[in-house]
Amino acid sequence: MTDKLRLGGMALANGVLVHGPTSWACAIRTDDGELKVAAERKRLIGNRVRNPLLRGPARILESFAVLPRVKLVLPEARLPFERPRVLASMVGSAIVLQRVRRSRLRPAAQELTAGLLSLAPALLALRGGSLAAYHGAEHISIGTYEHGEDRPKEHERCGSHLVGPLLASTAAGNVLASRAPAHLRGPARAVAAVGAVAAATEIFGWMQRNPEHPLAHALAEPGHQLQHRIATADPTPEQLEVAEAALRACLDLEERGDAHA
Fold first, then answer.
1. Residue 229 DSSP label
2. SS3 sequence, 166-211?
3. How many domains in the chain?
4. Residue 218 CA to its chain's centroid (Å)
5. Tens-digit pLDDT profile for residues 188-203
6. Which residues have C-beta within 8 Å of that of residue 23, sequence separation ≥ 6?
């Protein structure tokens, strides 16, 4: 039995994007019902970065680096943050965030509130429409492949599990950055942001390696509840067909790469 590849994914408003170690594939359902699929090799591979401070940010950057190519080869693909109300939510969150930072709240309370506000656009993107259902389809298809049996719409490696660790690490980093001299606070916040992502991804990796540990359970529970109640929905057979098409295309390209390695 061959080892299963470690896969990731992203739900779109009309399809699913699947990431492999060296390739990506995207499948969408057009407005007229046609199933379209595209797959390519990645130009940026984050898992080649070994530095603990950089490998987490590099893997996140890798995930988003393919989006321009997706839009180029599949112009009909609708990315999660393209909807006008989501863009409006992002602008509104930024405005409120500035007011929070100028408030009299304690620094830790300011940063925690800021972190929660930053979730608003993502939560709004998942509310309504088909995005949550495609998110569920992504989890079912990848989870079933990885485990070799039917899986639910929640997945243990979903990015929602990063929410708790990322909020905590971001708040801590920004509190420290706020103590820097005024002329250095901008760069300090930038360094804190990178450090927060690095810390959160390392914690997430530890959670995956120690799934039975009580602390890992506690850290994973908010993400699981977020998936179960908001971020995913049961997909239709047609939506699941789209997710499986993306999965097959990604695996086919990865296998062809192995054959030429």
1. I
2. HHHHHHHHHHHHHCCCHHHHHHHHHHHHHHHHHHHHHHHHHHHHCC
3. 1
4. 20
5. 888 888 888 888 888 8
6. 39, 40, 41, 42, 250, 253, 254, 257
CA angle 158, 83, 225 (to 5 degrees): 30
105: which 2 tokens?
């709240």
pLDDT-derived band at 128 (thresholds 50, 70, 90) equals low
Q: Token pair of 151, please?
A: 């899986």
Kindly tell me the burial class for residue 196, based on how many C-beta atoms sit within 10 Å of its own C-beta (0-12, 13-18, 19 or more). buried
State the Cα angle at 80 between 134 and 167, rounded to 5°. 100
Inter-residue contact 15 to 34 (CB < 8 Å): no
Residue the block writes with tokens 């509840």: 225
CA distance 261 to 251: 15
Say if 2 falls within a structural domain.
no
Backbone angles phi, psi at 150, to 5 degrees: -60, 135
pLDDT (tens digit, 9 = 90+) per residue, 31-66? 999 999 999 999 877 667 777 777 777 777 888 889
Q: Is residue 3 part of a domain?
A: no
Angle at 178 between CA 176 and CA 182, to 5 degrees: 135
Strand, helix or coil for residue 38: strand
Torsion over CA of 203, 204, 209 and 211, rounded to 10 degrees?
110
DSSP type of residue 1:
-
Report helix angle 163-178 to 107-126, nearest 10.
140
Q: pTM of the entire structure?
A: 0.77
Which structural domain, as residue segments, surrounds residue 99? 8-259
The answer to the question of residue 233 being in a domain is yes
Pair of tokens at residue 211: 């799934």
Residue 195 within a domain: yes
User: What's the confidence (pLDDT) of residue 12?
Assistant: 93
Enter the DSSP assignment of 33: S
